[in-house]
Amino acid sequence: MKSTDNFKRAKTKRNNKTLNLLLIIVLVLALILGAILGVINFRQSRKMDLSVPYDINRNLPIDTTASDGVSTADGFASDLCAAPASLPRDGVAMTSGDEKALLFNLDTSVPLFAQGIYDRTYPASITKIMTAIIALKYGNMNDEVTISKEDVTLEKDAQLSGMLPGYRTSMDGLFHALMVYSANDAAMAIARHVGGTVENFVAMMNDEAKSLGMTGTHFVNPHGLHDDNHYTTAYDIYLMFNAAYHYQKFYDTMQTNVYNLNVIKPDGSASVIRLDSTDKYLTGEKTVPQKVSVLGGKTGTTSQAGSCLAILSQNSYGQPFISIILNARNKNILYDDMDLLLNQINQ
What we know:
This is D-alanyl-D-alanine carboxypeptidase. One of its GO terms (biological process) is regulation of cell shape. The protein is of the alpha+beta class. The protein has a domain at 58-142 and 175-257 and 279-342: Beta-lactamase. 38% of the residues lie in helices and 18% in strands. A hairpin with a 5-residue loop joins β9 (306-314) and β10 (320-328). The longest helix has 45 residues, at 2-46. The model is unreliable at 42-76 (pLDDT under 50).
């Protein structure tokens, strides 16, 4: 009898130990689960809400007290180059300290050279890169456009294609005249046709500039003829050019060295206007440095802006680069200094 009681007590003791062990295991598992859930909740609370696309106009602060109404926040993207206002490079010196210049490696997002890239300056016809962007985003290249008197009534010595009021051509023709010959009448016709009015088109240009993070830019016309309130920076031009060349139409057109513009005159007769590129690299007037391929870009010249050039190029390894020079004293200096930048891309 005594033996039976001892057996029962031993069995009860073993059952209690087993139960205690199970309780400990459950408690440990509960603590581990709680810790895991806590970490997950913390991480979720630290994440950005990516349920909707990023909107620079909604998410970046705007300085409403600024007289020009320009956003004061810097644009950002993981694949963009960031650089100080000035970044010297051994063996590289622009002819003048007044020039604004940069050289960026687009493959690595590494800046190689910078000089005054955030200084406000005038873009001249490099403005037309933005005109091209708006035309591609909102225009139809198959549309027919009739040239108006407003399109050709511009300041003396403005670069004009030779079209007259009443001439008809396609949006595609105007786009080529804009990019290849830097025709101001083409810029005006595009703006009128796409925007309804030139003023509305310019507003579209400024909206697009904000969306690209071009916080130092303000446009007042689609062609770049001088106006004190029409300005930009070398870095903003980089942002604009970087966005533009991803359009296949822009990429193809900027490499064109000569274009035949087909027009219909008011009497119904057809005519062709030959338009040569304003880029001396493309026309062969200026020799490209060895082991460098110039893919194209945009020129600009006014007395206030000086000689300007934005170039997309490749080195011998196929890496792409953007190089920009603004406010050179003349075209000879412009291309000599651009050669100096292009010679860096294989080093």
